[in-house]
Amino acid sequence: MRTIISLNQNWQFYKTKPTDSTGEAVTLPHTWNAVDGQDGGNDYHRGTCWYVQKLSRPELENGERVWLQCKGAAMTAEVYLNGEKLARHEGGYSTFRVDLTDHLGDNNELCISVDNSDNDTVYPQKADFTFYGGLYRDVELIIVPAVHFALGYCGTPGMKVTPVVDLDAGTAVVTAEAWVEGEGSEKNTVSFTVAGQTQTVPVVDGHAQAAFILENVHLWDGVDNPYLYTATASLSSGDEISARFGCRKFEINPQKGFLLNGRSYPLRGVSRHQDRQKSGNALTLEMHKEDMAIIRELGANTLRLAHYQHAQEFYDLCDENGIVVWAEIPYITQHLTNGCANTLSQMEELIVQNYNHPCIAVWGLSNEITAASTVNEELLENHRALNELCHKLDSTRLTTMADVFMLEIESPILEIPDVNSYNLYFGWYLGDLEQNDEFFDEYHEKYPDRAIGFSEYGADANPQYHSVYPERGDYTESYQCVYHEHMLQMIEARPWLWATHVWNLFDFGADGREEGGKPGQNQKGLVTFDRQLKKDPFYLYKAAWNQTEAFVHLCGSRYVDRTEDVTEIKVYSNQPEVTLYVDGKQVASQTGHVVFKFSVPITGEHTIEARANDCHSVMQIKKVEEPNPNYTMPGRAPVVNWFDQGDDDPTCFSVNDKMADIQADPKAGAIIGQMMAKGASSHGDVAEAVKDNPALIRMMGRMTLLSMLKQAGTSAEQIQQLNRVLQGIKKPQ
Ligand code: GCU
After folding, report:
1. What residue owns the CA closest to ligand 1's atom 11?
2. Is 253 helix (H, G, I), strand (E, B) or coil?
3. Nearest to 600 by CA among 557, 569, 558, 559
4. Are 159-250 and 573-631 in the same CATH fold?
5. Parallel, antiparallel or unpaired: strands 398-404 and 360-367
6. How far apart are CA 189 and CA 201, in angstroms?
């Protein structure tokens, strides 16, 4: 048997090199950026900090070994025992171990230095999330017999279980492998037990393997039936380990999208960062479980666990809940010339440590890596090396990558992973919502034999902000609803998108951000950073994805003070019919799918109630003369619908036409040309960047002139003036 002893207690923490004075007493999991990493200013502490604890030598018998196990030390750790440096580990998200046995005295001082400072070799270095530092997951001692299952290689679990399912026969062939370390391992045997069957085999060159046939196999079938088997391996030396596994078949088809166990199973879900308000990335099992409960309420069937390896406990929860996972390493935003080795070591640890999890469907090579780097041979070679490593370590899974929106769809890098996915933010950072539809339709038409996914999309929203005229960039909950309603419709019309992941399920720590009224946070979450508030769009997706719990949700419950005479009451529900009551009186009923909109005249204070079957939702609103200033982000003028697009003559050009259509017309194009020439002089770098990037040119051509002008901060008056000029130009018949 093996013994695991927790070392989470009794640490002395030092923000600098340990001194004779006592440090700060801390318990793991711990991060030193729990506060300064989430309050904005991008000034959180980055450097080398130290964790020190006194360690007495455990009782050992018959050559037992003592290993230190660290499950997460961000970002680079060094382990010292009694002043002797025993190990260095570069990568803040994976388990690593150190054999302490031969260095232990009766009483010892264990020091672990952890560094999260800038450097040019360990990823991540440039990204939109806080690089928290600390021993933020468990630290343990593992005591094993002299001959034991492997501990040293890449933080391995010691056993690898490969189930191969034959759906037609209803069987699975399960290959169990184990690796053994220690003097005399050749004299040992390993007994594997799978589904009640046991085979005992010799250890040869430190390796043992057995194959089992499971008849009438019980499939791991996603959220409906995530059945898990357990494989155990027992060494004649007495060591024993186990690994859960699931029998399932994943396929990604360019036309059909994702298939689970032979049936269409579009992956529709969200992304998650591993952090939380006030805790940073030092999460407890209870916090992981609470996140999973929220994911199950949402009804997501997939998770992109961005942008790095997550805790074993969370992959375990995904196995148990049938959530299909995109796992990835933090090869992100900017390619580092000296970082290739680190991408390979982080990917090797990710796969070796997580191979057995049935929930994992794909290995993500990189995220938006061309955002700040050109596609050159070095970058391509790094991706080829990663892709080959993935297939060498795991012949059962596909590779993917998340591409930034301006990466041309013709780029050679897209030919490296098995499947691709794009991060698009049209309708948030730039452009119009329809450009998301156009992008995927163009890609799918040009590459019908290439699977494509939607790895990120989202819009920031502070649930305090509301608007009767929601618009891109206003950080209102109202616009986040408009945005996601469009995206949900777009996705539902394209089942060939193999996976779609909302960015993000939770607001998360991004200390470089100072926006939306919450410095230090990225607020694209459907749920707030503290998990206490589910924003309205959470219920949009719940209505679309969760068919087990009937509900109805009134949007805008935080939009109490309303200036409009007739207000829109929006309801999300997974029921086919919704009835609306105002002050106790039934006013309307609607049948529909997910989104139900009603127009309600308001004059004073009102109780609004939505009912669907036995479920109901109630809120209070009131008519006011002046907009509530708390509903508008400081520094942003309250949005008025200053530009009524209803008056336009559709036979003439207007600012609502697409740039490419306007520029194609000699007269209208000349007017825009003059405007662009004037703009380019002040935005020369933008013009230059666009000139060299056909994807950006194509993307801007699809934008309406209005969204371009708003993006450039043009005033309403100037836009109206330009529109009047364009309205004087007939469109070609
Ligand atoms: C990118 C990036 C994310 C980031 C997101 C955003 O797509 O992959 O890490 O948080 O954009 O800007 O919100």
Report:
1. 128
2. strand
3. 569
4. yes
5. parallel
6. 6
Going by alpha carbons, the residue nearest to atom 2 of ligand 1 is 128
Q: Which helix (H) or strand (E) holds 696?
A: helix 694-702
List pLDDT tens digits, range 439-473: 999 999 999 999 999 999 999 999 999 999 999 99
Could you please report the per-residue DSSP string of 566-631? EEEEEEEESSSEEEEEETTEEEEEEE-SEEEEEEEE-SSEEEEEEEETTEEEEEEEEE-SS--GGG
The set of catalytic residues is 368
Domain 159-250 has CATH 3.40.50.880: no
Break the chain into its structural domains and give their ranges: 3-145, 159-250, 266-506+518-549, 573-631, 648-726
Structure tokens at 177: 């492998």
CATH hierarchy code of domain 3-145: 2.60.120.260
Q: Quick one: pLDDT band at residue 637, thresholds 50, 70, 90?
A: low
Please give the class, per CATH, of domain 266-506+518-549. alpha beta
pLDDT band at 561 (very low <50, low <70, confident <90, very high): very high
The per-residue DSSP string of 539-564 comes to: HHHHHHH--SS--EEES-TT--EE--
Residue 298: what are its φ and ψ, rounded to 5°? -60, -35
Each residue of 83-132: pLDDT tens digit? 999 999 999 999 999 999 999 999 999 999 999 999 999 999 999 999 99
- Spatial distance between the Cα atoms of 493 and 22, rounded to a whole number of angstroms: 62
- How much distance in Å is there from the Cα of 506 to the middle of ligand 1? 13
Site to substitute for ligand 1 among 456, 480, 500, most atoms within 8 A of C-beta: 456
Under 8 Å between Cβ of 329 and 389: no
Predicted confidence at residue 642, as pLDDT, reads 45
Q: At what angle do helices 536-545 and 285-298 cross, to 10 degrees?
A: 70
Is residue 671 over pLDDT 80?
Answer: yes
Closest alpha carbon to 457 in 478, 482, 436, 443:
436
| Cross-strand partners of 596 | 571
Ligand 1 site residues (CB inside 6 A) read 127-128, 307, 367-368, 423, 456, 503, 522, 524
What residue owns the CA closest to ligand 1's atom 5?
A: 128
Is the domain spanning 573-631 CATH 2.60.40? The answer is yes
- Cα distances (angstroms) measured from residue 481 to each of 135, 221, 631, 649, 692: 38, 32, 15, 30, 35
Two tokens at 205?
């060159």
Quote the CA–CA distance of 152 and 588 in Å, as a whole number.
67
